[in-house]
Amino acid sequence: MNSKLLETVGRLVAQNPARARVFEKHRIDYCCGGKLPLGDACERRKVSAEEILAELESCDAARDDGAGTDWTQVPLTELADHIVATHHDYLRGELPRLEMMAARVAKVHGDHAPDTIELHQVFAALRRELEEHTMKEEEILFPWIRRMERGGGPAGPMAPSVANPIRCMEQEHDAAGAALEKMRALTNDFTPPADACNTWRVLYAALDGLEQDMHTHIHKENSILFPRALQLEEACV
Q1: pLDDT at 60
Q2: What CA–CA distance (Å, rounded) separates 96 from 101?
Q3: Are 62 and 37 in contact (CB under 8 A)?
Q4: With contact defined as beta carbons under 8 Å apart, do 149 and 76 qualify?
Q5: Which neighbouring-strand residues pair with 37?
Q6: Confidence (pTM)
Q7: How many Cβ atoms from other residues are within 10 Å of residue 1's Cβ?
Q8: What is the per-residue pLDDT for 21?
Q9: Residue 202: burial class (beta carbons within 10 Å; 0-12, 13-18, 19+)
Q10: Per-residue pLDDT reduced to its tens digit, 199-215
């Protein structure tokens, strides 16, 4: 058996971020579902493991080792800062704009396309959850991780563990992933109807972009930042 089939999907992307394109293509979840072994993930999505392995090999062969950043090697503080500046700031700018468009489409088209009303409701709830989630990461979890890396903060068997807020963040990631899946289902894979207005089309394209960014965002946390923070805490105790 190919050893990659036993490796988790999240770890495979951590080793080479370009592999995310393969998993995105086949709708294999590498963020919230990143702890699943590749073989199990292929079985769950009912896709050929041999085909996925071949595409991963092609991806690896084409890899430019000088491009991008290996987030498994940079300091945790740098990775946390990158997540805030790249993904959290993206959400701060995009979420209000998307909710405004979703509300407009639901108001104008909801009478003959009721799924747009439910889409707006699902998105509005997701926005609230993501805004609370990023605040907790920026005010609690990320400062905790930075403090550990500097050698500060509580330590010892009776001290609180960073595993507690990490577990909470992972649960919220799962909820966000479920909301994204719901929105994809409501929008026919973000495909607007033939007679859709420009706002409707822009909304669906932007939701597709949001999903892609969220997959990358959650992957960096679930599969790289959080495991490394837990390893650091274990080494310090």
Answers
A1: 81
A2: 9
A3: no
A4: yes
A5: 8
A6: 0.82
A7: 7
A8: 82
A9: middle
A10: 899 899 999 999 999 99
Per the CB < 8 A criterion, the answer to whether 110 and 117 are in contact is: yes
Mention every residue, 6+ apart, whose C-beta is less than 8 A from residue 20. Answer: 13, 30, 215, 216, 219
Say which DSSP state 158 is in: T
Q: For the chain, how many residues are written? A: 237
| pLDDT tens sequence across 30-65 | 888 889 999 999 999 999 999 999 999 988 876 554
- How would DSSP label each residue in 164-181? HHHHHHHHHHHHHHHHHH
Model pLDDT, residue 16: 83
Q: Please state the separation of Cα 234 from the chain's center in Å.
A: 25
Average pLDDT over residues 111-128: 97
| Amino acid letter for position 116 | T
Residue found under tokens 């393969």: 22
Which pair of tokens denotes residue 35? 């702890």
Please report where in the chains the tokens 């909801």 appear, as a residue.
110
Placement of tokens 């991963």 in the chain: 56
Token representation of residue 189: 């894979």
Helices (H), 46-86: 49-61, 76-83
151 pLDDT tier (thresholds 50, 70, 90): confident
The two tokens of residue 174 are 């799962």
Nearest CA to 58 out of 18, 4, 31 is that of: 18
Q: What is the DSSP letter of 85?
A: I
